[in-house]
Amino acid sequence: MHIPLTVGRVLRATAAAALLAALLAAPFTPATAADLRLLNDGFDDGLTGWSGSHTPGGVDPVLWNGRTTARVTDADPAAAYGRESMPGLPAVPGTRYTLNAQVWAESGTAYLYLRFRDAAGRLLAGGANAPATGRRWNRVTTSGVAPAGAATVSALIYSGVADVGTAYWDEVLITKDVTDLGVQIESSAPNATTFAGGSAYALYTGTANVNPQLAVIDLATAKVTRKITIPDSAATPTVGGWAAATATDGSVYLGTYPNSKLYRYVPGQSAVTDLGRAEGGYSFIWDLEPGAGGVVYGGTYDQGRYFRYDGAFTTLGAVPVVPGAQNVRSLAHDPAADATYLGTGTHAGLVRYDNATGRVDDLLPPAYAHDSMVGGLTWTGGRLFAWIDRTLLVLRVVRAADGSYSATTDATFTDVDLHHSPARDGKVWFVKEGLLHSYDVAARTAQATGVRPGLDVTGYTWSGGTLVGLGAAVDGTRIFSYDPASGDWSNRPVTGAPVLPAAINALGAGPDGRVYTGGYLTGGTGVHDPLRGDGDDDRPDTPTLSGLSQTDSVLAHDGRLYLGVYPSARLYGYDPGGAWPPALLYTGGAAGDKADDCEPGHGPPPQDRPYALAGGPDGAVYLGTVPKYGKRSGALTVWKAGTAGRTLCVVPDQSVVSLAWAGGRLFGGTSTRGALGVDPVYAPGASATLFSFDPATGAVRLHPLPLTEPKAVTALKEVGGELWGLAGGSLFTLDPAQPGTITVKRLFPDPDYAARPSLAWRDGVLLTVPQDPGHVYGTLGEQIFRIDRATRTATVLLTVKGMEGLTADGFGNLYYKINERLYRLARP
């Protein structure tokens, strides 16, 4: 019986006896699994699944050092004792297999053998063995390539002829060279919702390999009545969508990414219609709004276009519609005036666009000029509701005598969720600080209720006099209902909502030996128990842990798991075995001033993407971050239990994307790429650099690299007292005591950061594994490699398109990800 979050195995006598009886009563059929699983690999069920292949006797199940084990007792120097895992697992000739086991050699020498047999069960040449000695638990590993004719692979625990001694065996686990461990994270969170005829139409995001789905949800029964997969093509793949709107003719329109496509769904039909792309190039349709006569309006990224669809696409106004805007992030339409309000970014903009004349009027209050985005707009009750970085503005739009328009602010509310209701009886409803509030349009006042909806609402509607919202909760899609007249409310789960895999954004090994993965965009956390995966590669081995948005970095430090989470560069801490979600420790998005960008005499801007994490010997945790949209200067955050934490400028106009502790100081690597929305993407003429931070004095020192304008230092690692780093395809090393002397060796051509700018934030990884002290492992540009520590020579182990990330388990195996799937490469 494997106990999660522990290293050993503890015998539960009653349960083990019952399970053993069940196993003996029925024949064993090995499961089809991503991981190869030996039957009874931890001897929790005695010796079931282990056949004697040598001198009879000598092996028995016992409890040793708190574990269920197989004891091999060899007192005869003329006999050999052992047990082999039978039946063997399927083997493929030419494939390398690796055995791992825990062994306590109380006396003598214990041996672990890898065995290959043909289809008739005959033993073939090609087995490998690993000896072990020592009166403690030792991890032993042996590898071998299946020879021609091999049909099965098995494990043998053994004491040979001429050997005497006693050994205790536990956790005999096996892996092949490359293993697809399958989907790790699932999501049932709608990204966009619209309503028509008593139903909600919710759009669920997929991955590069799994198409998104539209769910039709009956609001009365809270049941999905139809699920429709959104089509695409290899040339224009559809991953997900943020936009949904119901046109005046009752048709439902959906806007998707990364192909900027528009789809129409007619309620009652079984498929959607692909209407084509709203503009050239890969991009997003961020928002959609209905106009008169079945027309829909939309806004896009990255050309900042505003368009109309009435059977054909028409771009309205200039491109971009607001000078300098890359995103038309939000829309609101006033049908009486035939005017549309556009919320733009990356530098926040808010304009009124007259669809008849093309006139554009600027409405953004000056106080929000330094924000990055107007993220949400609603025209209702004769007012414009604008959502900017969790602040809700209620704006009164006024026409002057010369025909121009301006806006005055009726009310301002902070810490408000994105979506709010259509006006009814003179009131608009929204969630502030977790509580449902009403806003009286005429009185310009808000009133809190005692109701906590408990979900991230993606759309509101009215059903009679009842407010209805649909969105995501920790356990999936839910419907929130509230009757303002009576105060009655409910929160109901939706039955049959789509559950789709989420792409893996970050991965790392936890202090409990598990591999943790963080979901891209929709969030969620996956947990993989190494070498013990189940047989369903299209579903996670363990239920997805909810409660965190997109994780950008993972760190095991001082027995805790730390996670850097986007947006707002949030740091969470988790004690394995404790309650989930983890505790929020620090928010980098709350630090700094939106008007600042590390100019001389000024601090950092608010931070957003925590791509780098490192731990100090005093328990401090350090974050290296990319700033909020439209800014160039990342920052270094220092957090320690009992302190408030602080965020510091280190290298103006550059992001901090790698960190490592070495020689009593913290070292950091920068990227010349700023946040999304900066133009040009890379700081002109800048060179990524190495810096050091002295925690005692707070002093920052730059250590320029002897390279020609490197774009990014994406990996740092302390290796045997030295600091190693990757800058593009070059390896650099230095003595932390003499950081002015830097040695550089070209390993690979520089990655094409111009074609793939995201690589300049997170391309490289360097790591060491205790099982192989002579090498350093790394990844760069879709390849995994091994560097000889003595010669600095790199050997490429694997090259796979789409590969990203690298971490290692306690056996020394390597893990990487491709889209939503986790893979393991057995260490050579």
TrEMBL record:
Keywords: Signal. Residues 1-33 form the signal peptide. The keyword Signal applies. Gene3D superfamilies: Galactose-binding domain-like. Coiled coil: none annotated. Residues 527-550 are annotated as: Disordered. This is CBM-cenC domain-containing protein. It comes from Actinomadura luzonensis.
